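Reference record
================
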Amino acid sequence: MDPVPALEESLKQPLKSVLGPATAKVMAEHLGLHTAGDLLHHYPRRYEERGQLTHLADLPMDEHVTVVAQVADARLHTFASAKAPRGKGQRLEVTITDGSGRLQLVFFGAGVHKPHKELLPGTRAMFAGKVSVFNRRLQLAHPAYELLRGDGEEAVETWAGALIPIYPATAKLESWKIGKAVQTVLPSAREALDPLPDSLREGRGLLPLPEALLKIHRPHTKADIADARARLKWDEAFVLQVALARRRHADTQLPAVPRVPRPDGILAAFDGRLPFTLTEGQRKVSKEIFDDLATDHPMHRLLQGEVGSGKTLVALRAMLAVVDAGGQAAMLAPTEVLAQQHHRSITEMMGELAEGGMLGGAEHATKVTLLTGSMGAAARRHALLDLATGEAGVVIGTHALIEDRIQFHDLGLVVVDEQHRFGVEQRDALRGKGKQPPHLLVMTATPIPRTVAMTVFGDLETSVLDQLPAGRSPIASHVVPAADKPHFLARAWERVREEVENGHQAYVVCPRIGDEEDDPKKAGKKKSPEDEAEKRPPLAVLDVAGQLAEGPLKGLRVEVLHGRMHPDDKDAVMRRFAAGETDVLVATTVIEVGVNVPNATAMVIMDADRFGVSQLHQLRGRVGRGSAPGLCLLVSEMPEASPARQRLNAVAATLDGFELSRIDLEQRREGDVLGQAQSGARSSLRVLAVIEDEEVIAEARQEAAAVVAADPELERLPGLRTALDALLDEEREQYLEKG
């Protein structure tokens, strides 16, 4: 028996038994912390110096923040309201300052008495709450606070260090309460098992783990913090990279059929009929793919490229290479509309080469078959037969392609479009479709910075297409500040009319649909003052479409498109738009993926601040697809100085998706990397900032590869095995397994 786990016992202690059930429940529900070890790894977000104040100008909107500041003044107002008609309502307004900026705190009703007594001018305290804008000023409504006194037993103990740790907190549990809980479990840090091999730790001069945990929670100097973070970053990067390296190692053990194209086959014929030459990037990426296809274990490659960088062409050439080598290739799209579109564009690109087995087909031709869920029974039987006999060399479809019943003759390559909409289980089901696992090429138009590719997609090799082919038009992007300058918005609608008068079409995108039932549970509750001060709900497609058709776009043909429509209605609307029978399409983000209407030249995005940077970039990619230049207008009511507006300015300033994806990551701070859609990839990273730590990740990847090559089962590294098991708890284990 391994004597090691006994050491770990105190870290495995449930928080219930250490902190009591009430606190433990909040920690589990709101922060996902269950054991003493979990809490030790809940690191401070930043540190405030005892004598210094938080810089108030940089506070993020709509987020729960903790600040250290000084009370400048406090005023009690009385007012009349429905509840207190005789002018008995009370509101306490406290202004706090960091010496330069100011922030308004508001307390209402019975809640004013205690702060009125305690928050006297000159008092220093920590304040926690959600930042909102009210009357164009930043405010915290009903913040929790903890006075910073220099006296008393408890104060000396808690504030012993000059550095006050500020923890990622929630409205239910303030930072200082988390700090006290951490003090309770801190002694057990001494028993933490070190996952790093000694040689690596000593070679890089990193602190032992117990010492790093003590220093990150109770630093005495800034150097303590830096040393602790450097060490803990390595842990995260290294353990994750070991998991991925083991995954890649296991993949190299799988067999696959090497696929090498014939020199005079369908690929050569296809290249011969291309009306243009491949870009440098397309040639380089194609070579990487062909090299992988020629080996006897499965390719696992991620192909990233902007919308319109010619990914489909690269993928198609790989598919044809496999057909040349006697195999079949399947392309999976996330929706039926997209599958049909790929089928159309691929048969157009291939021309007579797609007419295998028909009169008039070329001698090297193959058959390109479409298979979707909504096909009629006869067409479906026919398609299934083509797959089973091998008549169809190229198959295009939705996830329906990987149902149990579907048999391939010899599946050699699977191309997946937009991986993050494609579940892990499906990729797993796919592996069982070939006699041996097929080669896999995953395509995405979401630009992923190199570090994210190394973490989230670390089990895939990456290829990047970063040039746009000739003939794509530039897109001009502008921010329209609807609140500051309403006439800009009026001008935006005029621009849309002008585009339509010139024979083009436009999209208007809104964050909501607008037919949501009001949640009766919410309606019954009386609104708190915070809610009253909250912004209006996001604009909705159904409302906006009505207002436009009656108002600024009267006389134009306006239609709506959103996710809750019946699939047939959606298709009909899209077909009319594509055929030019509709002038303006008012839609939700359902148009984000793959609607290709070259005649659409303008896009107006309402409440653009409600969308992420990468999402705005994806949406914008829907215009300027033809020869006429595109126009994208980002409408927002956010004040000029807000981070939301800065985000929009960044999108308007560049068309480079990789640049924007970096900004996006920096903006989201410790948010997760690619959204929750990557089920198991919910970033488990706590101190590792994916952007800044590119070097650490790259080095950890090399070290991990070396460790796994020498000892694939990690038999000599019990500490690392334990850490790996913790990282790959059930859900993630499955994710990585099936990835």
User: Anything to note?
Assistant: The chain has a mean pLDDT of 79.
